[in-house]
Amino acid sequence: MTKIKELHGISHDKGKEIISLKDVTFSYNGSPVLKDVSLSVAKGDFLAILGPNGSAKSTLLKVMLGLLVPQAGEVRIFGEKPAQFGEWNRIGYVSQQAANINTSFPATVEEVVSSGYYTGLGRFFDGARRKAASKAALEALKISDLSKRLIGQLSGGQRQKVFLARALVRRPEVLFLDEPTTGIDAASLQEFYSLISELHGQDMTIVMVTHDIASAVKMATKIVYMMDGKATLYEDTGNFLEIFTSKTLERGGMANAHD
Ligand SMILES: Nc1ncnc2c1ncn2[C@@H]1O[C@H](COP(=O)(O)OP(=O)(O)OP(=O)(O)O)[C@@H](O)[C@H]1O
Ligand SMILES: [Mg+2]
């Protein structure tokens, strides 16, 4: 992973708040799926978001990214209201749908990855830099050999890596990943996790939705568990399983303990 250093923005402000939610309530068609959620992500965090299917993990991510506007509460992105925030190149996002895009779309891997660079004025002037950044992202994910292939001819796991490369090409300070390991095989999974850990080690802030509790416990610095519209923060990830399991037992069930 020699090119990793080229893939993240420079940061000298560890601990500074990147995203904050205060008393956020969000509803689709009148029924709330997030209820009075407050949380914050600071520079250098690795936040893992866990919870059963339908517990609003993806919704939470979209609210944090300003893609969904809550009916109540406050969202701040790098200290600004989402509507006022303009530096989207500081943020990388791989959505849960990335692996399921229209596979008949006639674009090569190289084109998809370098399209991640199209932000702000730079797109008109930055041809050489865009090329170098795309090349570095493809190399970091070990998919340079796929660069001329059509996106529709890739496997789900290969496509997932392409979309991660596309998010990294912006050299973001914070990377949002929504179930990024779906479709990735066991061998690639370890590589994928070491890449994410390495990016985090290089000061990239990570927010990752996952069903992989074991990896979340190992890698994350904070865990948020979503359930019934509420977000519970566990700052001691080492003890997460113990605390979580005893809480679940207190509530009288283990149904979601292994979700
Ligand atoms: N666009 C939408 N319109 C209406 N309801 C929606 C919409 N998107 C999600 N929902 C509902 O909101 C709830 C939360 O969905 P969300 O996708 O955020 O859950 P999730 O925790 O990410 O689930 P998963 O683990 O399956 O990805 C679900 O009940 C879902 O059916
Ligand atoms: Mg989801």
Keywords:
259 residues, alpha/beta, Rossmann fold, 6-stranded mixed beta sheet, 3-stranded antiparallel beta sheet, 8 helices, 9 strands, 31% helix, 23% strand, globular, disordered C terminus, binds adenosine-5'-triphosphate, binds magnesium ion
Tell me what you see in this structure:
Helix 2 (109-115) runs parallel beside helix 5 (156-168) and helix 4 packs across helix 5 (156-168). The protein has a single domain (13-250), classed as 3-Layer(aba) Sandwich (Rossmann fold). It has eight helices and nine strands. It is 31% helix and 23% strand. The longest helix is centred in the last third of the chain and has 16 residues, at 186-201. The strands form two sheets. Strands 5-6-7-3-8-9 form a six-stranded mixed β-sheet, with helices on both faces. The protein has a three-stranded antiparallel β-sheet with strand order 2-1-4, with helices on one face. It is an alpha/beta fold. Strand 1 and strand 2 form a beta hairpin. Magnesium ion is lined by residues 57-58, 96, 178.
